[in-house]
Amino acid sequence: MKKTIIAISRAYGAHGTVIGSRLAANLGIPLFDKKIIDLASEKSGLSPDYIGKLEENITGSFLFNLAAGSYNMHGIHTGYDIPMSYTAFSAQAHVIQEIARKGSAVIIGRCSDYLLRDDPDCLKVFLYADYGDRLRQCKEEYKLDDRAAEQQLRKLDRGRQNYYKNFTGENWGQAQGHDLSVNVSRVGADGAVNIIMEFLKAAGRLE
Description:
This protein is α/β, with parallel strands linked by helices. The chain has one domain: 3-Layer(aba) Sandwich (Rossmann fold), CATH 3.40.50. The protein has helices at about 15-25, 35-45, 50-55, 60-65, 85-100, 110-115, 130-140, 145-170, 185-200; strands at about 5-10, 30, 105-110, 120-130, 180-185. A five-stranded parallel beta sheet has the order 2-3-1-4-5, with helices on both faces. α1 (about 15-25) packs parallel to α9 (about 185-200), α2 (about 35-45) packs across α5 and α3 (about 50-55) crosses α8 (about 145-170).
């Protein structure tokens, strides 16, 4: 297999970790999911818990501050303190770029599709699922009734949308930012794995 990075963005309830794990096993390449948080923690000195929950807690617009000249993307101080959220994101970005330089891998989330958008070896995949399936998973995972599960699902979606928008300036889940989008409700986790494998073959990544 040629060097291949598979950057998976996923909606809650689309089984992104399961699909990513099976892809990595099929291809014999490493999977990076929560391990990214641990590596970013080591690099930044921030706690894994803080970095892991960053996606849920973004409120202000970091990119607005960049546009206003408060910070720059190299971390040079320009009159204001650089927020911990940027320190955390910057550490994760460096980790993801280092992973991509080293060789083939499956990378889950953390704006990896955007960070590696210009890498010719990167296949960018977006996984999504029907609302009803996502809601059922939310109810089961969080032990919630229908109303509470709907609120939780909206919170999870809003968190991922805000996180992506704040740190990339792009809208999360847009088709033009991905090479392949798969509705997992239609084909199941195994079907999604098969589709991605076939796409890799068609793209000449597998020999």
